[in-house]
Write a structure and sequence with these properties.
Blueprint: H1 28-31, H2 37-42, E1 51-53, H3 62-78, E2 81-85, H4 91-105, H5 109-112, E3 126-129, E4 143-150, H6 167-192, H7 199-203, H8 206-209, E5 211-219, E6 231-234, E7 240-245, E8 251-255, E9 258-261, E10 268-273, H9 275-280, E11 290-292, E12 300-308, E13 315-316, E14 334-335, H10 336-352
Parallel strand pairs: 1-2
Antiparallel strand pairs: 2-10, 3-4, 4-5, 5-12, 6-11, 7-10, 7-12, 8-9, 8-11, 13-14
Helix pairs in contact: 3-6, 4-6
């Protein structure tokens, strides 16, 4: 008789423990940099993630629009991450998206399990918790819900939560409005590279093929936040990532050889440059290392939308206009799926070799 397979508990089911399980404890050398996130956010000295105001991104005055482009270009080149404000997405819609995501995670675990994914079989859409993807077997202090939200003809509404009842409608409209914003940001970033404004979007597959994947990250209260991470240090494989939060701090970026804690900026998105855009820009735009802290006082929720090229149909390589004898190509051509596999292989090898 086969042994019964017992599913691992979701992270939210561990919050009542006095001590976190050993598989969530970070290595000692990593823990030295983990501080109290609320104290970290209050710090005013040192560098801060730039804020880019998009209010005039649609201005008919080319000089006014150029100022917005320069601000975004500078942030993308220096930091690889920025807060964007006056982005044009309805505040009421954002409130509904936040409400829907929170309401889903407020459901009993048994109800959420009806939407569970199965990473082992390749079914990544749905409700899940991070599996160990390196040889060290370390886990991250988060549960999540993941699904594709755009383009509409590629999404699978069967895996979207039916509860709360407003989840599907709010997320559909959010996807449409965010997709328009993505096009505008890509246009500004194209101009910042000195190419025509539609170039980056075209290289990433255009309106019909560029994918928007949403991951709602749920970081429960952690009894020992100085020992754990919500998400370990990484760069995003996407072209761009747009992050909305419930205004609880947690994001840190590694800038100038130290961890900088992102402020909670009202009515803003955090926008990351991802690896795919770093490759096309030949390293001019930066994909920055970042991670997530947890805390014992408040649940943190973030809505991350990863804007990704199609897996195999597009070749990622530096734009020819950005390559010269003085500035040779910094990256070899690869598809998106090849890049993801290379990155995972390097991570596994690093863990096997005992490196961070």
């Amino acid at each position: 008789m086969a042994a019964e397979v017992v599913a691992a508990p979701r992270v939210e089911q561990l919050t009542g423990l006095q001590a976190i399980p050993v598989e969530y404890v970070r290595p000692e050398e990593e823990r030295t940099s983990i501080g109290d996130v609320f104290e970290e956010e209050k710090k005013v000295e040192g560098p801060q993630i730039p804020i880019v105001d998009l209010k005039d991104m649609d201005s008919e005055d080319p000089l006014v629009r150029a100022r917005v482009m320069e601000e975004m270009k500078e942030a993308a080149m220096d930091w690889g991450v920025m807060h964007v404000v006056n982005h044009g997405i309805d505040r009421d819609l954002i409130d509904r998206v936040r409400s829907a995501g929170k309401a889903f995670f407020d459901l009993p675990v048994e109800q959420k399990e009806l939407y569970a994914n199965d990473q082992a079989s390749g079914k990544i859409d749905g409700y899940g918790s991070k599996l160990a993807n390196n040889a060290s077997g370390q886990l991250e202090w988060e549960d999540y819900f993941f699904h594709l939200i755009f383009p509409e003809h590629k999404r699978n509404l069967a895996v979207w939560p039916k509860e709360p009842s407003h989840y599907i409608e709010a997320t559909q409209e959010y996807a449409r409005q965010l997709r328009r914003l993505v096009s505008k940001v890509l246009a500004l970033l194209s101009l910042g590279l000195g190419v025509e404004e539609g170039r980056l979007e075209k290289e990433f597959g255009g309106m019909d093929e560029f994918l928007l994947q949403m991951k709602i990250n749920y970081y429960p209260k952690c009894p020992q936040p100085d020992l754990a991470l919500g998400v370990e240090a990484h760069t995003d494989v996407s072209a761009l990532t747009f992050i909305l939060t419930n205004m609880v701090p947690g994001l840190q970026v590694y800038y100038d050889d130290k961890w900088v804690t992102a402020k909670t900026v009202p009515d803003s998105f955090v926008v990351h440059i991802g690896d795919s855009l770093e490759i096309l820009s030949n390293g001019k735009y930066r994909s920055i290392l970042h991670r997530g802290l947890v805390n014992k006082e408040k649940v943190r929720i973030s809505w991350a939308v990863f804007c990704e090229p199609p897996k195999d149909e597009v070749i990622l390589k530096p734009l020819p206009e950005l390559v010269s004898e003085m500035e040779p190509a910094c990256f070899t051509p690869r598809t998106f799926s090849q890049h993801v596999r290379q990155k995972l292989f390097k991570k596994n090898q690093g863990a096997l070799n005992g490196s961070k």
